[in-house]
Design a protein that fits this description.
Chain lengths: 251, 246
């Protein structure tokens, strides 16, 4: 389980995270949703120590990440997989090398074992015969799948995804969502995803927190989100014509 | 105030760079890769510049020594000393600061803005050490090799074009090149080269590493890295010369 307590983060005079607290459960898909600029990415990057927080606590299974030194943080980070918004694949390396980096750096596996693990992870995200290709040879959806494969290559306990569906067509986005769901349940990972894609919310949102201007406004699950009377959340959820019509038909 | 904070940030960055590599076999492999990427790919460029600048140095010295009382072997001697003391270590380092520095700053800057550096950090890798330390070691090793190569080719160019133009015969030029040779000049050139190599590797890396924004900012970082590395090379050239030759 991951717990964040009273998180504050500002850039200069601008307060981006304002007393943000939440629990992210094990074996579930935890979504952080909100409009663009609401602080979702900053929240995730702060939880991972990529941004220094002003105050508050971040706990990975009761281990206080926010007070750890670099060496202790490195240990925790080896338990974390991260899928960045743009994939963040190393563009000078082949797909196989991209997945091999963490294994070569931190495992004592032989070359054959590393190759087997890479193939297993690529197979797990339904990619075949891409080992020798470069990221630029792949489509956006395939790059996201490679990023997911790289994130799970070290068997992480925690998986973070920063808008995994951004820039993808609805069908590919659904494929990515299903993949994240399967991986989370299969390996009992604590998954934290930030998104503003309502299709993802309805498809995979086991636990959802809605933030606005860095503050937590609402918390619940995908069943509860359709019936909420929170105005800010309703404005966010039913901003699209599709969801407006859906609500109208449901009523 | 800004310059002091930049200097402070640069030294904090260096402290992180000089931490123990996470995996030594990967570290050695990266050094070899950087020697190829930064050094071996510069050989042709260094050869071309050295050959022609050596020729120009010889022609200019010959032009300035148009006095029947001065022996023509002085052309060889002056060419040798100008090339060993200044042209090869300083001018070639400045040229390499442009080529290697822009490569380093733009590569690392692009990795920063595309979150590849964050990805390395998330894997538990010390990104600054992983990316920058192999470049420092590679340049400290390969730049003196390039400078020796440059010295050789520049003197060769001076000899060839001096003889071709009829300003200095082969015998006179070779006499001058061997006359009153001071081995310390080579040490001096090497010391300068190693210091310049360190500057070329670290300053552009620093600007690249702390790039914020997108493609435009990568270009800005690259320019800043090259310009500031060149300025620091010129200042340290003066300081080293003052220390070692006076």
């Amino acid at each position: 389980m991951i717990e964040i307590k009273e998180l504050y983060k500002s850039f200069g005079d601008k307060l981006v995270l304002d007393n943000l607290s939440a629990n992210f459960s094990e074996g579930k898909i935890n979504l952080i949703i909100g409009r663009s600029g609401s602080g979702k990415t900053v929240a995730i990057k702060s939880m991972l120590g990529l941004h220094d927080i002003d105050s508050g606590g971040i706990f990975f299974d009761e281990r206080n990440f926010s007070i750890m030194n670099d060496v202790e943080r490195k240990k925790i980070r080896k338990e974390i997989g991260m899928v960045f918004q743009g994939g963040a694949l190393f563009d000078s390396m082949t797909i196989e090398d991209n997945l091999s980096v963490p294994l070569i750096m931190f495992s004592r596996k032989s070359k054959n074992e590393i190759r087997d693990r890479v193939n297993f992870c690529l197979d797990r995200v339904n990619l075949v015969n891409v080992n020798k290709l470069f990221p630029s040879d792949l489509s956006g959806g395939m790059q996201k799948r490679v990023a997911i494969a790289r994130a799970i290559v070290l068997n992480p306990k925690y998986l973070f995804c920063d808008e995994p569906n951004s820039g993808l067509d609805p069908y590919t986005a659904t494929v990515i969502d299903e993949l994240l769901k399967e991986i989370t349940y299969e390996y009992n990972i604590t998954t934290v995803i930030n998104t503003h894609d309502m299709n993802s919310v309805m498809q995979i949102g086991d636990h959802i927190i809605f933030i606005k201007e860095g503050k937590k406004i609402w918390e619940g699950n995908k069943e509860q989100i359709m019936d909420t009377d929170n105005k800010d959340l309703n404005d966010f959820v039913f901003s699209s014509e599709l969801f407006k019509r859906l609500k109208k038909n449901t009523n | 105030m800004n310059i002091f904070s930049t200097i402070g940030k640069y030294f904090i960055f260096l402290k992180k760079v000089f931490s123990k590599p996470d995996n030594f076999s990967v570290f050695y492999k990266n050094i070899i890769q950087e020697i190829y990427n930064l050094g071996v790919t510069s050989i042709g460029f260094v050869a071309f510049v050295s050959l022609f600048v050596g020729a120009v140095v010889t022609l200019q010295i010959a032009y300035n020594l148009e006095n029947p009382l001065l022996p023509t072997y002085l052309i060889g001697l002056a060419t040798r000393d100008s090339i060993i003391l200044e042209f090869a270590p300083t001018m070639i380092s400045l040229i390499l600061a442009g080529k290697m520095g822009s490569n380093i700053a733009s590569t690392i800057g692009t990795m920063r803005v595309t979150e590849q550096i964050d990805a390395l950090e998330m894997m538990g890798i010390n990104s600054s050490s992983y990316l920058v330390l192999p470049k420092i070691i590679a340049l400290i090793f390969i730049n003196p090799v390039l400078i020796v190569f440059s010295m050789f080719l520049a003197i060769l160019g001076g000899w060839f074009f001096g003889d071709l133009s009829g300003l200095c015969s082969t015998a006179d030029f070779l006499d001058g090149v061997q006359y009153y040779f001071i081995p310390f000049n080579i040490y001096y050139a090497f010391i300068k080269t190693v210091v310049f190599a360190f500057i070329i590797a670290t300053l552009p890396a620093y600007y690249g590493y702390f790039t914020k924004g997108g493609a435009l900012e990568v270009g800005v970082s690259s320019t800043k890295g090259v310009v500031n590395a060149s300025i620091l090379i010129i200042i340290s050239n003066y300081l080293i010369t003052q220390l070692l030759l006076n």
